[in-house]
Design goal:
It contains 14 helices and 17 strands. It is an alpha/beta fold. It has a single domain, classed as FAD/NAD(P)-binding domain. Strand 9 and strand 10 form a beta hairpin. Helix 2 packs parallel to helix 13, helix 4 packs antiparallel against helix 5 and helix 5 packs across helix 13. The structure holds flavin-adenine dinucleotide (FAD).
Length: 443
């Protein structure tokens, strides 16, 4: 991230600091720095959900595996996200059907469901005061084709054996008192949870079984070595591994053998968290259901256990927002979405504002597979990683164990060159265009 235009001065250092999740964390986790020299079968670079899920899955097969994390575990997107877990991918399922046909799109949906179940079971194993799991996710829709949307939901339910409830405007208002939306899709199987607590609990359980997780241990250079790979770490450690897996999310950098920086986009999205709102919100936003909307550059929000409102917002490829800007814009958006309650939102404080990076390919699907012999990529989950990262990790695990058949479906999505700096500007222009369309639809 060379240029100032692309970097956020608030985010130098460990990105998880100064988030609500860190300030209220119900779990702690720490791991040593990697120093010295070691050999292993599989080296995982990146300690977000993708890296942790893969390490956890490989540990069941006695494969010696080391995980290196540059900062602290889950200090990237995995520990600071909105905390929504729903089936599917970043790309809409019907869009996938258009691209791949129903049969292959259904195969992808099943893979995403397996990741969703894995995540749900993980959350359910953890004390509920720590995981903070709550079922029910509502998609609030702004649409002038309501009956078409309703029939799409029925078709989707039949085809994928789901039970999404279509809510007409008067039913939607029981969950969300905003004039900006026309109908809703309620999924009572999907859930919200505290991502940082859950990631740390997962890391703790892996560490107690197999160890070999290292924090503050950035991989600084990776080269091919005796048919495998040799990685050097920031404090002079050396690891020789038969296989290497990049799980670096939107935090990738140019690391010798990988050229992720030439293939993926690192986009940014932000979260603002208000002061505790007491009874101010009763009847305005449901206390139990997490809500996101159907706009491409959309919002996602939910009430936290201490009755603060978490408001997820914005996506951008350049011109990163400072904490002050996130806080200001959160307030402005709240007044726009809840015009009758503008006075309440004018008076409240937004106590937290942070942003995190998302790895995206231009087709919005994960980048999953081989870059070179024994060099695997497990990344690019965009804004929909909480089920897709473990789903994809299980395919990489299978490939490491010798079964590559399921992973082949991702061959169609292997990203090509991202266009460098120009590509990044093009991505920003595209996002701005989407934002304008969103505004016109909502006006
Ligand atoms: C604000 C925000 C809100 C979101 N909300 C949701 C949501 O509600 N639901 C949902 O499903 N998804 C959401 N997402 C997306 C989701 O969080 C991501 O898709 C997912 O966490 C990606 O996981 P990951 O392991 O690939 O990447 P990350 O969690 O970003 O992990 C990558 C890790 O790699 C490390 N790393 C990078 N380079 C090196 C190196 N050289 N050496 C060692 N370590 C390195 C980084 O430090 C980082 O910890 C959100 C994302 C953000 C940013």
């Amino acid at each position: 991230m060379g240029s100032d235009l692309f970097s956020n001065p608030d985010q130098w250092g460990n990105p998880i600091q100064n988030t609500w999740y860190e300030d209220t964390a119900g779990t702690s986790f720490s791991a040593p720095i990697f120093e010295g020299k070691e050999d292993c079968d599989t080296l995982i670079i990146g300690g977000g959900l993708a890296g942790l899920a893969l390490k956890s899955m490989l540990s069941e097969y006695q494969i010696s595996c080391i995980l290196l994390e540059e900062n602290t575990i889950a200090s990237g997107a995995s520990g600071m996200n909105g905390g929504f877990c729903t089936p599917g991918w970043s790309v809409d399922q019907l869009q996938l059907e258009n691209w791949l046909g129903v049969s292959r799109a259904s195969q992808l949906y099943s893979i995403s469901l397996a990741g969703f179940q894995w995540m749900k079971e993980l959350c359910q194993k953890i004390d509920s005061s720590i995981s903070q799991i709550k079922h029910g996710v509502l998609k609030a829709c702004s649409s002038n084709k309501i009956s078409k949307l309703e029939s799409k939901v029925h078709i989707f339910n039949e085809k994928y054996e789901e039970s999404i409830h279509f809510l007409k405007k008067d039913e939607l208002l029981q969950y969300l008192l905003s004039p900006r939306y026309d109908c809703g899709l309620l999924d009572l199987q999907s859930f919200q949870f505290n991502p940082l607590n859950v990631m740390r609990s997962l890391a703790f359980s892996i560490q107690s079984k197999t160890g070999k997780i290292f924090e503050n241990s950035k991989a600084t250079d990776v080269v091919g070595y005796k048919g495998g790979y040799r990685a050097r770490t920031f404090y002079g450690g050396v690891i020789n591994a038969k296989r290497l897996v990049f799980c670096t999310g939107g935090y990738f950098s140019n690391l010798g053998v990988s050229s992720l920086n030439k293939k993926l986009f690192s986009l940014q999205t932000s979260i603002g968290v208000t002061q505790p709102l007491g009874q101010n919100l009763s009847g305005i936003i449901s206390n139990n259901i997490a809500i996101h909307d159907n706009r491409r550059a959309g919002n996602y929000f939910r009430i936290l256990p201490d009755r603060r409102l978490l408001w997820g917002r914005d996506i951008r490829a350049i011109g990163m927002q400072t904490r002050r800007q996130i806080i200001y814009n959160t307030k402005e958006e709240l007044k726009f979405f809840f015009p009758k309650q503008a006075k309440i939102f004018d008076d409240i404080e937004v106590d937290y504002g942070w942003s995190g990076k998302l790895g995206y390919s231009s087709n919005l699907m994960p980048y999953l597979g081989f870059m070179k012999p024994n060099l695997f990529i497990l990344t690019g989950f965009g804004g929909h990683g909480m089920n897709t990262a473990p789903a994809a990790a299980s395919l990489i695990r299978d490939a490491i164990l010798g079964n590559r058949s399921k992973m082949q479906i991702f061959e169609d999505f292997i990203p090509t060159w991202n266009g460098g700096v120009l590509g990044r500007y093009a991505a920003e222009m595209y996002i701005r265009w989407l934002k304008i369309c969103d505004q016109i639809n909502m006006a």
